[in-house]
Amino acid sequence: MTKYLLLAASLFTLNACTTATAYNPLDDYRQLNPATNLPTPTAMSNGNFTAEQVARGQYMVGLLGCGSCHTNGALIGTPDLQQLLAGSDTGIAWSNPLLEPNPGIVYPANLTPDIETGIGSWRSQDIVRMLQTGVSKHKEQSLTVMPWPSYQKLHIEDVTAIAAYLMSLPPVKHQVPTNLKRGQKATAPFIHFGVYQSKQ
Length: 200
Ligand code: HEC
Prior knowledge:
By secondary structure, the chain is of the alpha/beta class. The protein has four helices and five strands. The protein has a five-stranded mixed β-sheet, with no helix packed on it. The chain binds heme C.
């Protein structure tokens, strides 16, 4: 299994050099630089929404950085620009991989309207509810790894515009790996957002 660990550079204060026995995660994990400021793909016309709504949604999705999780490779620094917003084969661990060998992992979903692998069967209300409450179309409560609590206070016009934009994207067929519960062994790479502090 390939393991990746994303270290929040400014917050990572683990000082492994002070004692001979201190554990240095960099012995086991590679440090990576995440990509930022990804372009947003251009949407097609969609009869259900105005061009202004779609354009507003494109602006919001770029502003809120949805693509930095939901684009293959973006989490490990090499985004696939042909698959913008079409989901990530790199997962995000939600329990600490430094404490348990097989943490739980979620994979950012394909947000393009492909029926089989994306959100092609979602209505705009389903997308709005997901962003405001974290409850997916399948009635599952999403972990806050998908940062829906940050989106709760967006104006309904903005959330609807995000839905309009996503539903107007060209569909991309790309199946992301299945989420893993704690204890299940990952076969696809994952990162972990960690904030660590030295005990010394
Ligand atoms: C920090 C990473 C991250 C960011 C940023 C992020 N997401 Fe997510 N998102 C996820 C993960 C991980 C999942 C899968 C959650 C799960 O399966 O429980 C997800 C799931 C979703 C889903 C559900 C799709 C499905 O098929 O179940 C939607 C819709 C969604 N995100 C939209 C967005 C939008 C729109 C934005 C920007 C406004 C965004 N996300 C930003 C990580 C992220």
